[in-house]
Amino acid sequence: MKEPRWAKDYWSYAKYANLAFSLGITLGVSIFLGFWAGQWLDRRLGTQPWLMVLGVLLGVAVGFYSIVKEIGILGDGKEERPGGRQGPKS
User: Fold this and answer.
1) How many domains does the chain fold into?
2) First-to-final CA distance of the chain
């Protein structure tokens, strides 16, 4: 039985919505972890607010690196496989 057109459109939109949600969560979590680690180190070492600022900047950098890597994989039409090998998307 042939799949209706609206079903194909729905899954296409759902795929991109999932990607946007995933990228947003990745960026938010990396910034939060950098903030938290920086504050923890600041409290231990008494360097407030410098390590917190450094942690947030590092979190932003890691988050954007992750986003660029994910978008690059999408653009190549390839995905990473376990063991670092590359192959076509299935």
Assistant:
1) 1
2) 22
Domain for residue 64, yes or no? yes
What is the domain extent for residue 59?
Answer: 33-72
Whole-angstrom Cα distance, residue 47 to residue 71? 37
Are 79 and 90 in contact by the 8 Å Cβ rule? The answer is: no
Predicted structure pTM score:
0.70
DSSP-derived secondary structure for 44-79: HHT-TTHHHHHHHHHHHHHHHHHHHHHHHHHHHTEE
Which pLDDT tens digit goes with each residue over 46-87?
A: 999 999 999 999 999 999 999 998 888 766 655 555 555 555
83 phi-psi bin (left φ>0, alpha ψ -120 to 50, beta other): left
**Residue 38 within any structural domain of the chain:** yes
